[in-house]
Each structure stands twice: as structure tokens, then as C-alpha cells.
Amino acid sequence: MDYLCNHCEVQLSKFEMQLNEQFPIGKLLCEFCSNKKEREIIKQLADSEADMHNDYTRDLVGDKNETY
Ligand SMILES: [Zn+2]
């Protein structure tokens, strides 16, 4: 049975199938797309962490304004 990349529908090599088995992300992706996906996930994580820091800072400032 052939496995196709969920994103670009290129046929997966044996190596790419092994990658998908080792690092399952819910979709079958070729090496190129999984690298791209990985970067997106890292970017999303970085963005959400940046948001959390902003919220944290805003909360601190907000508390101070209410207290004093
Ligand atoms: Zn692909």
C-alpha cells in the first residue's frame, strides 16, 4: 500500500514512513512538509509564549493600578 503526504500528496519513502511512525503528529507528512509543519508549531509556541508574557505583564500593571 502506498502512503501519500497529507499535505502535498507526494508518495512517502520508507524513511519518511519511519519518521511518521517515530514522530506521529496525526497526519502523514513527507519530510519537507513535516519540517515546514515543525517550524509552524515552533512559531506558534513562540507566539503563544510571547502572548502569555504580555498578559502577565498587563496583569501585574493592572493589579498595581487597582491597588494604589
Ligand atoms: Zn508533503
What does this 3D model show about the protein?
- The chain is mainly α.
- The protein has one domain.
- It has 2 helices and no strands.
- The longest helix is centred in the C-terminal third of the chain and has 37 residues, at 31-67.
- It is rod-shaped and about 65 Å long.
- Zinc ion is lined by residues 5, 7-8, 10, 29-30, 32-33.
Q: Helix amount, in percent? A: 55-70%
Task: Sum up the overall morphology in one term.
Answer: rod-shaped
Strand residue percentage: under 5%
How many structurally independent domains?
A: 1
- Unreliable stretches: none
The first-to-last residue Cα distance is 69 Å
Bound molecules: zinc ion
Classification by helices and strands: mainly alpha
Average of per-residue pLDDT values = 81
Largest sheet: none
The total count of strands amounts to 0
Radius of gyration: 20 Å
Write the H/E string, N to C. Answer: HH
How many DSSP helices?
Answer: 2
Give the SSE map.
Blueprint: H1 14-22, H2 31-67
The structure holds zinc ion.
Residues 5, 7-8, 10, 29-30, 32-33 line the site of zinc ion.
Summarize the structure.
It contains two helices and no strands. The chain has helices at residues 14-22, 31-67. Zinc ion is lined by residues 5, 7-8, 10, 29-30, 32-33.
Features of this protein?
binds zinc ion, rod-shaped, 68 residues, mainly alpha
